Amino acid sequence: MSSVLVIDDDKNIAEGLGEVLELEGFTVSVAMSAAEARVRFAADKPKAVVSDLQLPDGDGLSLAMEFRKQNPSLIIYISSGRSFLAEERARADLAGITEIVPKPLDIPSLCAKLKKIK
């Protein structure tokens, strides 16, 4: 099964989603900051990223742009508990975000989407 990098500064969300994805057969890395995510991304080379929009040391869209440059085929889901502003939606399009997913996350739906990754 594919590898997934989960990025969220809320420890309960990050670790909880990571545990569920592992139970679904994914190889999972968890990061709780942009800096930690960069290290995990370089080391683990995931096929998919599920990232929070707002991180303590950056934002998910800027991080997604960095990762997209390194891996053009990367699947990227950005999540947020608030509505995305028009400017953020435009940045998401530029970053090549696969999909914006609202919080609370619909875990079964997200798992189903990730299982389609080859």
Give me a quick take on this structure.
With 118 residues, the chain is of the alpha/beta class. The chain has helices spanning 11-23, 34-44, 60-70, 86-95, 107-115, and strands at 3-7, 27-31, 48-52, 54-55, 58-59, 75-80, 99-102. Helix 1 (11-23) links the parallel strand 1 (3-7) and strand 2 (27-31).
Keywords:
118 residues, alpha/beta, Rossmann fold, five-stranded parallel β-sheet, two-stranded antiparallel sheet, 25% strand
Report the span from N to C terminus: 8 Å
* Total separate domains: 1
Rg calc:
13 Å
Helix/sheet category:
alpha/beta
Oligomer status: single chain
CATH architecture: 3-Layer(aba) Sandwich
What would CATH call the class?
A: Alpha Beta
CATH homology superfamily name: Response regulator
Helix content: 40-55%
The average pLDDT is 92
Biggest sheet: strand arrangement: 2-1-3-6-7
Shape: globular
Amount of beta strand: 15-25%
> Number of helix segments?
5
Order of helix and strand elements from N to C terminus: EHEHEEEHEHEH
The third-level CATH topology is Rossmann fold
Walkthrough of the structure:
There is one protein chain. By secondary structure, the protein is of the alpha/beta class. It has a single domain (3-111), classed as Response regulator (Rossmann fold, 3-Layer(aba) Sandwich), CATH 3.40.50. It is 46% helix and 25% strand. It is built from five helices and seven strands, in the order E-H-E-H-E-E-E-H-E-H-E-H. The strands form two sheets. The protein has a five-stranded parallel sheet with strand order 2-1-3-6-7, sandwiched between helices. A two-stranded antiparallel sheet has the order 4-5. Strand 4 (54-55) and strand 5 (58-59) form a beta hairpin. Helix 3 packs parallel to helix 4 (86-95). The longest helix is centred in the N-terminal third of the chain and has 13 residues, at 11-23. It starts with a strand and ends with a helix. The model has no long low-confidence stretch (mean pLDDT 92).
